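User: Please predict the structure of the protein below. I'd like the answer in structure-token form so I can feed it into my own downstream comparison script.

Assistant: Understood. Taking the following sequence of 314 residues as input:
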Amino acid sequence: MTENKGALQGHLAILACNIIFGINIPLSKVVMPEYISAFAMAFFRTTGALVFFWLITLFVKWEKVPLKDLGRLAAASVFGVLLNQMLFVVGLEYAAPVETAIVVTFTPILTMLLAAFFLREPISWMKAGGVLLGMSGAVLMIAGKYLTGEAVAESGRNSIVGILLCLASGLFYAVYLTAFRNVVARYKPVTVMRWMFFFSALFSVPFLFRYVAHIDYASIPPRIYVFLGYTVFMATGLTYLLIPVAQKRLRPTVLSVYNYIQPITAACLALILGQDGFTWIKGVASLLVFSGVFLVTRSKSRAQLDRELAASGK
């Protein structure tokens, strides 16, 4: 019962993260690059989250982290925060939103392969099928407007560069989910993120500060500050607090397959705001995504297979 409750908490945490991420992509495109640059956005996300997590630690019991694990969390910050966030925001500035969203769908495949390498997690037909099924739904959702002629593809300033940067961001995030799962699981989420954002700020702020020093803050409309606040405190602070909650309870591939919720979120937001209507393509795409997520969550982990093998006496 406790195990099922823990798994449910993990699913709810990672679902919330990807809904927040899905909303953040179009908001970030409004902010960048017209008002602030991608590197300035990276600065605000890193420093804002750093303040967010260190303030939270004032109200929770302080956990002692050995020097060895601090080194591992420093490495985790490079993959899970620095490279992941910085490459993504720069890629988002260069690539079109549709291209960015499609590239994000490759992260579960990378995670599944890396989980097999780092954690010896099996790649079963059910797991692989679920990942590919969810990917097909996400791509169908994203490309639906262009298949029906409802929209014209938007080109970024240099789409190839943007696509490669977003793909690299997804790869580093997949490494973070798999290679650092064990050290993340040892501590409270706020402890993990307090140190990860401390190290990411230590490594990046000296190089990023110049990008925020010359921003004309007086010319930025109030709604842009609201969007920026959402990116910093919701799409960075809250999500990075929830990700370790899910990491402790779910397998890396299960975590990453929830990425497919992001285009569904964007479509639902457009419906709510009256910017778009419901079509059969969106219905089919949503069904594929949720079917893929279900299959991956139902696939067996290495621990389950080991227990079955031991029970069979082989």
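That's the full token string. Residues 9-121+155-250 form one domain.
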